[in-house]
Design a protein that fits this description.
alpha/beta; 2 domains; seven-stranded mixed sheet; two-stranded antiparallel ribbon; 12 helices; binds glutamine
Amino acid sequence: MNVTNSYIRNTLQECYSMQEAANLSRIICCEILGQSTIDYYLGKDIILSPKEAKELESILIRLCNFEPIQYVQGIAYFLGRKFQVAPGVLIPRPETEELVEIILKEISANARILDIGTGSGCISVSLSKELPEAQVTAWDISEEALAVSRRNNEILQASVNFVLCDVLTYQPAFQERYDVIVSNPPYVLEAEKQEMERNVLDWEPSLALFVPDADPLRFYRRIAELGLVMLESCGKLYFEINRVFGEATVAMLLELGYSSAHIQKDISGNDRFVIARR
Ligand code: GLN
């Protein structure tokens, strides 16, 4: 093992498991310091310039503060594309990749799509890239998030229309119609905080994560109400959900008058998506 690699691992092992420290070290050496994967696995040394040595120190300090590596690098991968991320947006999760894959199997190429709470833009930009004829609109309540998602739209050459919008107070325009509404809104309960990792709790935006314990379906109910006005007849809603609230979400949708609603599991076998038809 080279000197740099073992230095990185030893430093990180003060706050991470051996496995995590090794993984982070590979990312630092290969993706940040530019070492080739072959040289890394051959254990070749990296000669660091004074500037690189300083950069490495600052990376290690950030990681030892439990800052997610995606924020340190400023990027996260989503369905094979490289998205810019910053502490004002949630880091895209693999479950959300599954959600986009489900949607892509089911909708028409020229659908009018609305993504509510777009964050980094991973859902809306991916849909726009995969379905170039679709008209994709994306809302977020956070200017900071919209700056990131607009940048992803530009870098990845997608054509999403971004709008600063608070879904809880939004009044739909008369002629506004969509075929599909998708949302991965905040769904973690305050009560679930104690089970969460520091790298999520200390760094990711609370605004994108938490709902009050007393009103876990707040965003789903509001989006479903808007859907009754803004979805075409037979238009569809796609939600990513807290695995605990699948049945409650389905019941709420049927009660509001959706013609069908069902739960779909994620790859780990948890109730993770709810799909409804107007
Ligand atoms: N899946 C995310 C997490 O577990 C939460 C995403 C959300 O609240 N929409 O941290």
